[in-house]
Structures are given as structure tokens and as C-alpha cells.
Amino acid sequence: SCAWTLVSRPKGAPTLENLALKDISDQPLNDGEIRVKNSFFSVDPYMRPRMNEGESYIAPFELNEPMTGAAVGRVIETRSNRFKVGDRVSHFLGWRDVATLKAEDALPLPDIDLKDEYFLDVLGTIGMTAYFGLFAVAEARPGDVVFVSAAAGAVGSLVVQIAKLRGMTIIGSAGGTEKCDFVRSLGADHVIDYKSPGPFQEKLRKAAPDGLDVYFDNVGGEQLDAAMGVAKWNSRFAICGMISMYNSDTPIGFSNLSYIISKRLQVRGFINTDFMARRGECLAQMGYWVSKGMIKSRYTIFDSLEKGPEAFFSLFSGGNTGKALVRLGS
Length: 330
Ligand code: NDP
Hints:
Blueprint: E1 2-6, E2 19-23, E3 33-42, H1 47-50, E4 71-78, E5 88-91, E6 98-102, E7 107-108, H2 125-137, E8 145-148, H3 154-165, E9 169-174, H4 177-185, E10 190-193, H5 200-207, E11 212-217, H6 221-230, E12 231-239, H7 259-262, E13 266-269, H8 279-291, E14 299-303, H9 308-317, E15 323-327
Parallel strand pairs: 8-9, 8-11, 9-10, 11-12, 12-13, 14-15
Antiparallel strand pairs: 1-2, 3-4, 3-6, 3-15, 4-5, 5-7
The structure holds NADPH dihydro-nicotinamide-adenine-dinucleotide phosphate.
């Protein structure tokens, strides 16, 4: 089997030169281990900061070691009584076709009629990020005016839908007409194409003439600055991600930062794992909405292990709509 490894740390946008597909020969299993044939692995924006050296909430990728990340697959070999051959599991050894891991590092997935993709999206950490970011971190309530950026992406497209289900007014931003149409189809009340000409803050002000109660930030930069400008007093900011800044080491000039003080903005960063203890609550609610067809899932699928880097790079050029995944051949 093979895995993608990081061979050099990118400066700016990552390129194929930073990555190499390497053979990882399958050793015999040790006691307590399982072998999993991956059906899908996830590519996620946070993997870009993991390519840098330095401290974060998750260790950087090691040079010349296989990269990791969320994956789903079936057990093909086992030396543990926790799993039998054929069991469906999720785990953290993505970026490869076959994973060998300790059984306790795999999460059993229910044998229900739901496609593997769901467990890397709405019923995985993406769902937790949208659910807890909106309801717990931003404390969003029915009637709130909520702005969410990267609204056609994995997290953003869920935020739009669950905010709508809870009776909020939603403004979503995305790049390009096609993505904006998609965001509208999810139930957003106003859509802003951030790539269209003109200052973003003016467009946001027009969409929210009375101001924002909540901003769910996926991109940082200009859109975060604009949201501070248009925020109401005491409004709540869930700072989820800052993808517009991940490939850059140049600081962005914010002109509205002092509104944090004057408008008493509540700006809170979070990581989905902060809410692991409440995972059951999220799964129950999201599972209910999915089972009733009240949440639509959209995927951009890249076929074959070789397409891993292309799938990952697409996140930074907006090549994905919904969740970006790599599908592995059978
Ligand atoms: P997405 O599926 O949203 O993919 C990324 C999207 O970001 C692209 O499709 C693109 O959409 C948009 N984008 C890329 N570059 C820029 C830019 N310069 N300016 C504005 N938008 C840009 O990814 P995810 O849903 O997985 O992640 C969204 C955000 O949430 C990321 O910042 C990520 O780091 C964060 N995150 C945080 C978690 C947490 O626990 N805190 C967990 C998961 C994700 P477009 O075409 O519209 O530009």
C-alpha cells in the first residue's frame, strides 16, 4: 500500500513538489491491531497549517512521514476482539489506501443504510463543527441574523441549513455565481459573491441593514473585518477558521478591530474536539435531520489516491462545493 508524505514544507500555497506518494509495506499485525481498507479520506483546510513547523493545537506533519487525517473504511484483517473483518470504522490514518492501527484508535460506525461519505461530513467532525460552532459557541437563537462565510463549503453549507432549520435569517458568502446559487438553494436569505467587484463591507451592510447578531467565520481576512463593521452591539462571533490567511505570512490590516471594544463583541475561537463530550447530542440531532431529508449533503469527490494533492489544493482555489473527499478504488 501507499501513502502521501510531506517531503518539504510549503512557502505560500502548497504544490506537488511538497508531497510524494511513498510505498508503506504492510507488516504483519501485532496483537490488538487491525488493518483497514480505506474507502474515503478527507482533505481539510487545517492540514495546511499542519504543514508548517511550530506549535498549534495539533502537531505539525513530520517530514517524510505519511500524513494523517480523517478516513473511513472496512476492516480487512484483525488481531483484536473489538472488530471483525467487514466492520465499518472511521479513524485518523487518511492519505493512504490501507491503514494499520490499534483497534482502540478506530471508531465503530453503525451498520445502517448510510453512505460512508456521511461519516466524514455531517455525521463526523464537519457536522460537529457546524452544530457546536453555531449553537454553543455563537449561541445562535431563532430570529438572529447570522452571517456565514465559505457558505458553499463543507462546514458553511451545513451552518446555512441548520440555522435555517432553527428559524434564523441567513446571509452566506461564496466565490462565484454558481456557488452563490447553491447557497441560495440551501435556504440562505441573502447571498454575497465576495469575488464580485466592490468593497465587501458595503455588500454585507446592504444584506444586513440592521446589523448582524452572529458571524460564523470560516475565512478571516476582509470578511471578518467587514463583519466587525456591520455587527450589532454584543453580537457573537464564532471563529472557526481563517482559510484566506493559511497560505500567507503577511499580516492582514484590520480596520474594524476596535469595534470589539466599543460594540462589546463576543469573539470566541473553538475547535470541534472541545465538544467531544457532547458528541451524542450532535449526532442525535444531525442524524434526525438527515434521516428526514432535512439536510442536503453535497460532495466534491476526487477518484483515486493519486488525486489526494489535487483534492487538497482545490480547497484553496475554491474547486470544491460541499465536502471535498478522496475516494479509493475497490
Ligand atoms: P470548505 O469545504 O469550506 O473549503 C474551503 C473553501 O474556502 C473553498 O471552497 C473556498 O470557497 C473558500 N476559500 C478558499 N480560499 C479563500 C479565500 N482566500 N477567501 C475566502 N474564501 C476562501 O472547507 P471546510 O468546510 O472544511 O472548512 C471551512 C473553514 O472551517 C476552514 O477555515 C477550516 O480551517 C475551518 N474548520 C475549523 C474547524 C474547527 O474545529 N475549528 C473544523 C473544520 C474546519 P469559495 O469558492 O467560496 O471561495
